[in-house]
Amino acid sequence: MLKVGVIGTGMIGQDHIRRLTTVLNGVAVTAVTDVDTAVAADVGGRIGATVHATGEELVGDPAVDAVLVCSWGPTHEQYVLAAIAAGKPVFCEKPLATTQEACLRILDAEAAHGSRLVQVGYMRRFDFAYRALKMAVDSGEIGLPLMMHCAHRNASVPPFYRGDMAITDTAVHEIDMVRWMFGAEVSAVRVLVPRHNRNGGELEDPLLLIMEMADGVIVDVEVSVNIRYGYDIRGEIVGENGTASLGGPAPVAVRRDGRVGVPVPADWRERFLQAYDVELQEWVHAISLGGQPLGPSAWDGYAAAAVSDAGVEALRTGNRVLISLVDQPKLYAEAAG
Ligand SMILES: NC(=O)c1ccc[n+]([C@@H]2O[C@H](COP(=O)([O-])OP(=O)(O)OC[C@H]3O[C@@H](n4cnc5c(N)ncnc54)[C@H](O)[C@@H]3O)[C@@H](O)[C@H]2O)c1
Ligand SMILES: O[C@H]1[C@H](O)[C@@H](O)[C@H](O)[C@@H](O)[C@H]1O
Questions:
Q1: Of 148, 184, 250, 320, whose CA is between 20 and 30 Å from 23?
Q2: Cα dihedral sign for 252, 254, 259, 263?
Q3: Are 80 and 137 in a shared domain?
Q4: Which part of the chain is the Gfo/Idh/MocA-like oxidoreductase C-terminal domain (predicted)?
Q5: Residues 114 and 9 grouped into a single domain
Q6: 137 shares its domain with 234
């Protein structure tokens, strides 16, 4: 039984604790912590977990074999570094850290440890629909992929959500997904800012992020975070001989009164429910067998952060911003091969 400690017991922390305690096998949540001590005490009390005062204390708990970081993005670096220093596997929700410099410090720490400890929560790689889309591309049935059109729509966002987060917190999913989908790095980005959505107050919303991949594929991503009607994730790949796209938002359609009705998920918990289950079950298995995590690595977290940093600069300046990555450390090249 893998004993997991969870840092951050907000929305996704609680959702992951629910799946770790009621859905997945071979795992128990033995400890929790949150700067909001009342919420940590409440969540910990419900599952009989030790409630720690700090994340560092939780990492040092001998009853914690592995750590799940679900606190806000700017706090990820300190907890991931603490877990690496303790030699404990750490699953960190996206983003790995909010700047590429912070990600590089994590890469250095993991390289000094000598084997992979870190997995980043880019769950789209575990989603059935995205996996089927990748199979359609890899099979060659639409010919060489040329372009991809994406939409990432949130009904609303929390009050602490700021302008740059449209790139660093939201579009970062597409940034990771296209690297995985096309097996190529993003080489340049641009951001266009259309007419303002008044639902978002002062927030610059929506945005259009345009990514140029090193192999020539061009990807556009509409990011809308106050679209009201629901959580809608779309993707269509245009190939030489055809297109491949994600299906609709729901498996069931109701036809009545002269209309077709298809429910749209309310948020990411509903849309990616199965993907989070698979992602964490595979992580639990890999760690329990004494192996290294097999999902998105600290290198993937760094590469995504380098692109999102460039996206933030493109948003601020209106420029096309080029991206160059540091040389890939051996640890990750070996894991990929
Ligand atoms: N993979 C996904 O689809 C997905 C979905 C949602 C959130 N996330 C990521 O998960 C993280 C949390 O998001 P959320 O929606 O659950 O936010 P949230 O605000 O609901 O929860 C975050 C929790 O972290 C706590 N916290 C903040 N700083 C802390 C610190 N220094 N130490 C301990 N706890 C701290 C807060 O008090 C809060 O309870 C973010 O990085 C977000 O990007 C990923
Ligand atoms: O943290 C959340 C989460 O990553 C969701 O999957 C994304 O749609 C939101 O925009 C983001 O704020």
A1: 250
A2: negative
A3: no
A4: 134-321
A5: yes
A6: yes
